């Protein structure tokens, strides 16, 4: 069931079984919801206008058209999921703005990694004004996929992220270390990694002596 802030994803694939499988992969990633897949390329513009997806998952070769032509026609972020490995097709997809290109068949984890990276990319570019550092970081996060953040299965990382997310205000490194029960150095390492990946927000607060202190808060 869709939550208000979930990113909506539209799968476009003429193979009903594959489309359903990819939609299920999307639904398994927190923060994403799959719209009913579309199998006929001719109906995609109408569905996009009606449902306003955040992201398209497009096959290249479709009856009655091409996913590459849709990328040129529609102003929507897109991943290409295709068995097409010909150089011209891949180059065209990237030239027309594909944010990821996954060769079918692929493991569920691969798409999940790209979706999580896409969510971080969106958060990093959410500000009204961006500097060069933020733009470069967003591009690195998007391209690196799962390498953009430390392993999501790390218990300590998850504990640090949970502590920051649950706090009503920004926390210092010392406060996070005490909340999780780890050393200051370990807390600093995980906080830096999470901030770089866009999963938490880094700010500065100046103390009584004028010395800046890093503060970490949840991404809202």
TrEMBL record:
Write out the entry's keywords from A to Z: Activator, Cytoplasm, DNA-binding, Phosphoprotein, Transcription, Transcription regulation, Two-component regulatory system
What region holds the Response regulatory domain?
A: 8-119
4-aspartylphosphate occurs at which residues? 59
Subcellular location field: Cytoplasm
Give yes or no: UniProt keyword DNA-binding: yes
Keyword Transcription regulation included in the entry's annotation:
yes
The cross-references to Gene3D superfamilies, in alphabetical order and at most eight, read: 3.40.50.2300, Winged helix-like DNA-binding domain superfamily/Winged helix DNA-binding domain
Q: Name one GO molecular function term.
A: DNA-binding transcription factor activity
- Main subcellular localization, coarse class? cytoplasm
Q: Which InterPro entries match?
A: 2C-system_Tx_regulators, CheY-like_superfamily, Sig_transdc_resp-reg_cit/mal, Sig_transdc_resp-reg_receiver, Tscrpt_reg_IclR_N, WH-like_DNA-bd_sf, WH_DNA-bd_sf
PROSITE patterns the UniProt entry points to: RESPONSE_REGULATORY
Q: What GO cellular component entries does it have?
A: cytoplasm
Give the protein name, as stated in the record.
Answer: Transcriptional regulatory protein
**What species does this protein belong to?**
Zafaria cholistanensis
């Amino acid at each position: 069931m869709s939550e208000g802030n979930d990113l909506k994803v539209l799968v476009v694939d003429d193979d009903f079984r594959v489309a359903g499988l990819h939609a299920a992969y999307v639904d398994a990633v927190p923060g994403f919801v799959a719209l009913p897949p579309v199998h006929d390329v001719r109906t995609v513009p109408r569905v996009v206008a009606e449902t306003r997806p955040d992201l398209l998952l497009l096959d290249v070769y479709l009856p009655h058209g091409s996913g590459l032509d849709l990328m040129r026609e529609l102003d929507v972020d897109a991943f290409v999921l295709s068995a097409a490995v010909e150089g011209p097709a891949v180059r065209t997809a990237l030239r027309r703005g594909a944010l990821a290109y996954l060769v079918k068949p692929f493991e569920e984890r691969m798409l999940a990694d790209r979706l999580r990276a896409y969510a971080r990319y969106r958060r990093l570019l959410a500000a009204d004004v961006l500097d060069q550092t933020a733009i470069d970081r967003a591009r690195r996060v998007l391209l690196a996929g799962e390498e953009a953040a430390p392993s999501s299965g790390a218990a300590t990382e998850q504990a640090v992220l949970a502590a920051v997310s649950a706090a009503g205000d920004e926390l210092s490194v010392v406060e996070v270390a005490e909340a999780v029960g780890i050393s200051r150095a370990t807390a600093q390492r995980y906080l830096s990694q999470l901030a770089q990946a866009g999963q938490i927000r880094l700010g500065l607060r100046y103390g009584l002596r004028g010395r800046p202190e890093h503060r970490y808060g949840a991404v809202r």
